[in-house]
Amino acid sequence: MIHVGRELSVVGGGAIGLACALAAADAGWTTTVYDAGSASRAAHVAGGMLGCFGEGQPGERRILDISAQSAALWPDFLTRLGDPTVRTATDSILLAASATDLAYLDDQVGFVRDRIPGARLARSTGAQLRRCETALARGLAGGYLAEGEGAVDNRLLVAALEERLGEAGGRIVRAGVDDPTELPGDQILIAAGLGSAALAAVAGADISVHGEKGEILRLRRTRWSVPPPKHVIRGRRHGRPIYLVPRADGVVVGATQYEAAGSDDRVPQAGGVADLLADAIAVMPGLSTYELAEAGAGIRPSSPDGVPVVQRIDDRILVATGHGRNGIALSPWTAARVMDVLAGEPRESRKLRESE
Fold first, then answer.
1. Mean pLDDT in runs of 10 for the chain (356 residues)?
2. Strand 317-321 and strand 309-312: pairing?
3. CB burial readout 134-164, b (16+ within 10 A) else e
4. Which helix (H) or strand (E) holds 186?
5. If you ran DSSP here, which 8-state letter would residue 268 be given?
6. Distance (Å, whole) CA 160 – CA 98
7. Rounded distance between C-alpha atoms, residue 284 and residue 331, angstroms
């Protein structure tokens, strides 16, 4: 067992870094987070979907298993946050615009059911889905009602984590870090998203992550608009994924996904924005009266196999990165995994090896 102290420095003030810092503070660690600001955070440009059913893709068995474990941790995690406004939806609709899109969803749901026998996924016609969300378009091929597949407001989540961390005695330093080895503390956690690889390299480790760019839109309801959906809407239209995630004042629309040109490639492209708007309005026509409040792009740090990298670099430094599109959903799982590593008891890694 690795001998550790009780002072932790965390590099990264996004959902992953803050969730890990709060878990450590709750466990009695003196905790400091070094936050370079929201501009580089993947969590700042995110839908905030929590479920595992909508993320389960054939061939991604390990990430589905991890997602299911994290989904089970979210109720207690939300209770710890103590802010009911963070949660924006409790259930999802998985919908298909065409018969081809529905066949894709059927394969996806079949894979999920094989791995999670208790998954609550009810096959539904387009008309049945419209009874759940009356603003959905007519003529949809059908889909599934996914119970328990909720969402959070990503920015309220980060704010709540910062507040709870302060109450627990943690500290946030608004500054970037170039060399993690120079930070104070018995233990150092690198949780800086795409920048984690460079920071790990300074510490002598080779961590393989690449950037995946994704655009999202924030649409604001006007007094003439239909209300935002009560469910998370996860759809497919002509083979393109589209999601609509409720917010108090509107919806978040996302998300495109393609290889980032570089670490600063955070300007949305016109084609991506156009596709998102077209697909969103086709799925829910009433969104055409909403205001386009924000078009943004973020870069998600992804590992080669899609499985998060949570491991030690040496006796003092560990890293948590590579979460891809699932960073917010996997925050409580990552916090629990990091606490296991800090304790020298990586139970989760043993579970994953046994499930392979």
1. 70 97 97 92 91 72 91 96 96 96 93 89 96 96 95 97 98 96 96 95 94 94 95 93 95 89 82 95 97 94 93 96 94 97 66 40
2. antiparallel
3. ebbbeebbbbbbbebbbbbbbbbbbbbbbeb
4. none
5. P
6. 40
7. 30
What tokens were used for 262?
């570089």
Q: What are phi and psi of 213, to 5 degrees?
A: -85, 145
What is this structure's pTM? 0.93
Bridge partner list, 32: 9, 171
Alpha-helical runs (H) found in the chain:
15-26, 61-81, 99-115, 126-132, 154-167, 196-202, 270-283, 331-342, 347-355
Rounded Cα distance between 31 and 24, Å, is 7
pLDDT (tens digit per residue) in 89-144: 999 999 999 999 999 999 999 999 988 888 899 999 999 999 999 999 999 999 99
Q: Hey, what are 182's tokens?
A: 């120079």
Cα distances (angstroms) measured from residue 177 to each of 12, 23, 98, 309, 355: 9, 22, 48, 20, 37
Q: Over the Cα atoms of the chain, what is R_g?
A: 20
Extract the tokens encoding 284. 């829910």
In a 3-state reduction of DSSP, which class is residue 189? Answer: strand
**Burial letters for 180-194: b for 16+ Cβ neighbours within 10 Å, e otherwise?**
beebebbbbbbbbbb
pLDDT in tens, 297-328: 999 999 998 899 999 999 999 999 999 989 99
3-state secondary structure of 3: coil
Spatial distance between the Cα atoms of 125 and 136, rounded to a whole number of angstroms: 12
Name the 3-class secondary structure at 91: coil
pLDDT of residue 5: 53
**26-41 b/e (C-beta count within 10 Å ≥ 16 → b):** beebbbbbbbbeeebb
The one-letter amino acid at 195: G
Q: What is the DSSP letter of 45?
A: S
Tell me the HSE value of 13 on the side-chain side, using a 13 A CA sphere: 25
Give the C-alpha separation, 209 to 16, whole Å.
Answer: 16
Burial of 257 (0-12, 13-18, 19+ CB in 10 A): middle
